[in-house]
Amino acid sequence: MTLDLSLLPDGGLHWLIGSGEHAGIVLSSRIRLARNLAGFAFPTRAREGERLRIVHQVRATAAKVPSLRDAAFVRVDECTPLERRLLHERHLVSRELAGLERPGADAPTGAGVLVTGDVGVMVNEEDHLRLQVFRSGFDIPGALRQAEQLDREMAAALPFAAHPEFGFLTACPTNTGTGLRASVLIHLPGLVLTQEIGKVLQGLQHMGLTYRGLYGEGSDVLGNLFQISNQTTLGRSEEDLSDQLVRVVRRVIEREEEARGVLSRDAGYIIEDKLWRAYGTLRHARNLPAEEAMNLLSGLRLAVGLNLLSGLSVYTLNKLLIFSQSAHLSHAAGRVLTDGEANLARARYVRQILANEARLPG
Amino acid sequence: MTLDLSLLPDGGLHWLIGSGEHAGIVLSSRIRLARNLAGFAFPTRAREGERLRIVHQVRATAAKVPSLRDAAFVRVDECTPLERRLLHERHLVSRELAGLERPGADAPTGAGVLVTGDVGVMVNEEDHLRLQVFRSGFDIPGALRQAEQLDREMAAALPFAAHPEFGFLTACPTNTGTGLRASVLIHLPGLVLTQEIGKVLQGLQHMGLTYRGLYGEGSDVLGNLFQISNQTTLGRSEEDLSDQLVRVVRRVIEREEEARGVLSRDAGYIIEDKLWRAYGTLRHARNLPAEEAMNLLSGLRLAVGLNLLSGLSVYTLNKLLIFSQSAHLSHAAGRVLTDGEANLARARYVRQILANEARLPG
């Protein structure tokens, strides 16, 4: 199949809009619920035929689930490698489900994803179903409400595997119980620049939270973007877990804002210089490797946050982050670009957006 | 005395105009003639009173020398430290004559300079007189004609120390004979980037030439700017010496142009990226240390040479080089700036010039 992105409502990128609370710092809030169908082996143990029965059953059911009425269904295992990278870059599928862990690998048989608005449902990932809701900005309660609605609707149509005492059963015991992971994608350049970040991240772990890089488990922290999420799911309610995350993240946002205040006060012109140089490079470079772009875009986001630069909306900043990734650049070019070609295309894309949208002070 | 730069014809910067041959590569051509007055000890051995008699005699004579009729006369030893740095940054006086070799030092007693158009005459430097002619671009013959004319006129008014066999006598024996140093200030980024520069500089030495940095003897090479000059003066005629320099420099220019061709052909986008990044930093940085500015301005000059950037004349490039120096920035600010303040002022000055004059491609 050829993936027609225009068939995905909002291209699966509704959260880019940058409309939520603290959207300048918290890019997105996500609730993920792990669910499995009773009577089937977990995907890692299931045979191919069983995995295919699962994906067909989920697809057939989706039509009856109100939250998924308009969802596009994508058979990830039938996508080209470029299409799978594209879905992964949009955070719609995990690295594993996209079969991107080794170069040249295929996606697992029966891998699929349902996408609509803020909602995505991965099929045959580590669990049979991974229900995900993305919200723009800092909106864990909104994401939780929407995810619980989706969960109730799907549970009415599909028999979920559950244990009366432990709760929902999952392939990995760490997810058993609520199967919930609540997370925010948060931009913390102030804490990184003031070297406070180490203490803050340590503090998270004492509160039962953890952090990862932009692309989830095992990925590096790039561009000062952290995914903060709960670590445990067993023995506590969904509301408890999400309230805990909200409280801690609210405190992290305050610490980040304090750090930005300190930077502006004590190192104003050093920071201004650093951010303007980042802008100058993004605005004029002809060759822009992905990792450098992430770091410079972090500077750009901070420059907007500090009101050094105007005209760039949070939406544009989010768009730059997603569309400057290699698979997106290849998609725009209509062919698979080499890394070198992608670096040139990335520089051109970023340059054009900034030429059109950024306004410089007098 | 307070130095009124407006009294200096062209501010002593006539050569900035960028009009000569190969002006994009050769910034300026200079002829210097070392002369001493008969009957006085060399400046390094002369007592203060003797040095003062020399400077008074030269000043009195200047009025009778046609080439110096409109010259401004500056007593360097009566200038403030900032004024002395300013004269040095304009290449009108040497580091020694400006008393800049140690912080807090004074200029030597009787230090002076006459300035008009392309001509400068230092008084009480290593020799009693250092006659200098600067020409824009690559024009050693023009500079030599003008220097010889000045020399004849001054010799008619002042008794020069000479020996019938050796020629003109000078404080340092290496200058004895013609007292001539012919030099060009040349920009060789292509040879530096292709790493051919080592071979070229070695070749110079085999031809009896030598090289120095932007500020002459003992100064570092900054911004890929080299002063190439003759090493010996004894036993050869002025024309021989200058013809030799012209021949070799012509070959160096060819090598530089070849190197630029190789860069464009084999590393086009790498070079473009490097130069555009230099432009982006110059255009947007808020804090610009002097040495970094020199290197980035070298990139800018090359970008103009390769037609990547338009709207910037050679005059503007030369002006940026001179007026972004610390003493010039202090002069413009009307007070002595600290190094930190000068870095901010430098960034502001360069930014404004580029915002006004550079034209970016579509």
Helix and strand sequence of chain A: EHEHEEEHEEEHHEEHHHHH
The CATH architecture designation of the largest domain in chain A is: 2-Layer Sandwich
Strand content of chain A: 5-15%
Question: What number is the mean pLDDT of chain A?
Answer: 89
Tell me about the largest β-sheet of chain A: 8 strands, antiparallel
Per DSSP, the total helix count of chain A is 10
Principal-axis shape of chain A equals: globular
CATH superfamily of the largest domain in chain A: Glutamine synthetase/guanido kinase, catalytic domain
| Largest interface, counted by CB within 8 Å of the partner chain's CB | A-B, 17 and 17 residues
Q: How big is the Rg of chain A?
A: 21 Å
Distance between the termini of chain A: 51 Å
The figure for the number of domains of chain A is: 2
The first-level CATH class name of the largest domain in chain A: Alpha Beta
Unreliable segments of 5+ consecutive residues of chain A: none
Briefly note the CATH topology name of the largest domain in chain A: Creatine Kinase, Chain A, domain 2
Query: Major sheet of chain A: order of its strands?
Result: 2-3-4-5-1-8-10-9
The count of β-strands of chain A is 10
Counting copies of identical and different chains, the oligomeric state is: homodimer
Q: Which secondary-structure class do the elements of chain A indicate?
A: alpha+beta
**Helix residue percentage of chain A:** 40-55%
